[in-house]
Amino acid sequence: MKKLVVIISDRLSVLVRKGEVVERYYNPGNYFDEVHIIMLNDDKVEPENVKPMIGEGRLFLYNYPEPPYFFKKSLGWQPFLMKKWIRESINLIQKIQPNLIRCHGAHLNAFVALCAKKAMKIPYVISLHTNSDESLKVNSSFKEKIIAFFLRKIEIKSLRNCDLVMPVYQAIVPYLDKRNIKNHRVCYNVLNDANLLKKEDYQLSSPVRILSLGRQLKGKQPYHLISALKYFSNAVITLIGDGDYHEALVQHAEEEGVYSRTIFVKNLMNNEVCRSLKDYDILAIHTDYYELSKVMLEGLLAGLPLLLNYRSGLQVPELSDKICLRVEDSIEGYKNGLEHLICDHAFRERLGRNAYELSQKMWQPKHCEETYVSIYDGILKNYEKN
User: Which CATH number goes with the domain that contains 37?
Assistant: First the structure.
């Protein structure tokens, strides 16, 4: 009987509402017989809505939220002021008796895992989903920067003592190297393999179908892309996503005179998104983040040519000019990029086919799932020997 404890700070109900329920996401390869998800919040979600993410394993859900005003009362999460809360979390884990703990992100969840390892000799792994050095530069309030400052101490300690750090793309590695964290391996997120369909036909639609996916927040607001649409009368753009900038983007489309050719979809089940990707001609995204987002991975895996803005600073290693066209972050930049992709059929098809081929080598879902299984198996066998 193999048991996994997953400790998360995020809210599962948000994933369910957005339709991002990927099969076996929390239990790759059905490796574990039981998966116990401990949520460090008061989130409520119906177990049957989460069950596909566990596969054939048995699912157990727990809420273990931080006490009220925990950040202030613990003077910025000082370990010696969190002892009671940590001790109670370890008691819960002790009752479960897991073989392994996995943390998604390195926040208080990772510190709980570290303390459980010290108390019970349980290995833990951390998947890291952002390069927070870069993310804080793009979209963070003064309060968020203060919280990040105090979190950093326990975060680094948790990363250095875990059995493996798994950054989900290469752009996260510099964050680890800067802190001399050597025990890491890039492990791409497992995507929705059952619904990701390969694009075979690269003949342009009429009108040309442009897709823009992602959260509409600061650093990801595609104003210039929407403005560039006015130069292409035979093109429509579908924007799937929601966020603080959603209403402003709708208003912008109206002001630019392209609202009738701009389709806004706040939420769409991930299954539907993945199945529809092959029917678009171009995936166009704006982001100031140093990231290889899930929506990019899915689009590239379907074989869509990607149009993307240059960001200030480092560029994402995986996004070479073999699979994407980068342009200046301006109306003129996106106009030129769209024109190139629409007019040069051979170039557009070459980008799309290269994207599919590279994706199959690097983040094909079944391969990624097998990678996680291999990692789990190796860690558990190593602990059994010792």
Answer: 3.40.50.2000
